[in-house]
Amino acid sequence: MCCLTRVLSLLLGTLLWAPWWALHGAPLLELSGDQDFQLFLHKNLEFTRKIKGDVASLQRLLCDTFQLCKEEELLLVRQHLSITQAPLEQCQSRGFRAEACFSQIRDGLRAYHSSLAAVLELLPGHAALVETLQLDTANLSSNIQQQMEDLGLATVTYPTESQGPLPTFSSHFHQQVGGFFILANFQRFLETAYRALRHLARL
Known about the structure:
Layout: H1 2-13, H2 35-66, H3 75-78, H4 98-122, H5 127-150, H6 172-201
Helix pairs in contact: 2-5, 2-6, 4-5, 4-6
């Protein structure tokens, strides 16, 4: 259990910023070889890849439908919107605790699950894709919660603006741009998690 907890701490500590080997100058730990933990890594690696693909599909649909394709062209509009990246600061503090980091990742997934309602309003003709993405996001969050329980990690809840009600948009165009940045932020969140899972799974 002790070794598993150390490995989990490494996984969680790497989820926000790459490169992994530069994090606080700490060397990578060897995986314990525990089959259950390896199964968790590989299963959720594939799950994250699927979710990333669905987010990318919705990004392409927004591009095709509303000609919202390049983030740099929308940065000025973003200043007027209440769209934020799900916080993960507990994953990079020097007083790192696995419970805190893992809980924030779980809560971030829940926040994106809620935010996808704004995308559903924009793309009602693709409701099935958005609803599948919401379901998969909820399931990934549940997987993380279950892993916390299996490893005996305490649940920690951190208040965050992203868990509140969806922002109110002053115009339909602002709603479109808001949906664009919700997906862009979610994609970055998933890419960071995916790289960390893949790196550990290859050790």
